[in-house]
Amino acid sequence: MRSRPISLLIYFNEKEYENLCNLCEKTNLKKGRLIRLLLEGYVPPPAPPVEYNKLIREVRAVGNNINQILFFVRANGILNVPDLKVELKKLREVEKEIRDGFKIRKY
Predict the structure, then answer these.
(1) What gap in Å lies between CA 32 and CA 38, rounded to an integer?
(2) Cα angle for residues 94, 98, 104 (degrees, 5° grid)
(3) How far apart are CA 3 and CA 64, in angstroms?
(4) Per residue in 43-71, pLDDT tens?
(5) What's the rounded Cα separation, in Å, for the pair 79 and 50?
(6) Measured distance CA(58)–CA(107) in Å, rounded
(7) What is the reported pTM?
(8) What is the dihedral of CA 82, 83, 84, 88, to 10 degrees?
(9) What is the distance between the alpha carbons of residues 21 and 99, in angstroms, rounded to a whole number?
């Protein structure tokens, strides 16, 4: 059985329906879910751009590589500076992509 057994037919004019569709597109939510959230008083923020997940994966990969280098340093007492420099350079590149993509200002 459905968790929401009550259905409701709503009539919109062209502009109202266009606004609803635009908001659904921006938030990446279905119309029913969006309307329920709005009725609860919550205005959902716009969905992040598609590149967001790619950048998060890159940041995690670089962080993982740096952790592996630090684990090796702690275990052996030897710092592999070239590998660390490569990973830090990757981290700076990802940081620049994030700033450029999301218009984050550098202070």
Answers:
(1) 10
(2) 140
(3) 42
(4) 888 887 777 778 888 888 888 888 888 88
(5) 37
(6) 23
(7) 0.52
(8) 100
(9) 29
N- to C-terminal Cα distance for the chain? 54
**Of 51, 56, 34, the residue nearest 43 (C-alpha):** 34
76 dihedral zone (left: phi>0; alpha: psi -120 to 50; beta): alpha
> Which two structure tokens, joined as six digits, stand for 64?
């993982």
Amino acid identity, position 86: V
The phi-psi region of residue 31 (left if phi > 0; otherwise alpha if psi is between -120 and 50; otherwise beta) is alpha
Please tell me the distance from the alpha carbon of residue 74 to that of residue 66, in angstroms, as a whole number. Answer: 12
